[in-house]
Design brief:
It is a single chain. By secondary structure, the chain is of the alpha+beta class. The protein has one domain (4-91): 2-Layer Sandwich (Alpha-Beta Plaits). It contains two helices and five strands. The protein has helices spanning 20-30, 53-63, and strands spanning 4-14, 34-39, 45-52, 71-80, 89-91. A hairpin with a 5-residue loop joins strand 2 and strand 3 (45-52). The longest helix is centred in the N-terminal third of the chain and has 11 residues, at 20-30. The protein is globular and about 35 Å long.
Length: 93
């Protein structure tokens, strides 16, 4: 069985108004990850991903570039213990 992982990120740069959340959800679903993504009031995007470690590392790599139109300056990465609390991936408001 593959190792599970949980990743909590804050993405800085031009990441709001460029379909970052929708693209993150698309990317996560294609990798079979669960969790959520949302815009922060300070202009960053925050996300939590859970799933197979390889896939979580893949989405982390994607977060460093984001969708076309995004300009990622920094990704703050926090690895956490998996909780298995999510059934799917969602956009939070």
């Amino acid at each position: 069985m593959m190792a599970k992982a949980r990743l909590h990120v804050y993405i800085e740069g031009r990441v709001q108004g460029v379909f970052f959340r929708a693209s993150t959800m698309e990317e996560s679903c294609s990798l079979g990850l669960s969790g959520w993504v949302k815009n922060c009031s300070d202009g960053r995007v925050e996300a939590v991903f859970e799933g197979e470690r390889d896939n979580v590392e893949q989405v982390l790599e994607w977060c460093h570039k984001g969708p076309p139109g995004a300009m990622v300056r920094n990704v703050e990465v926090n690895w956490e213990d998996t909780t298995g609390e999510f059934d799917s991936f969602s956009i939070e408001y």
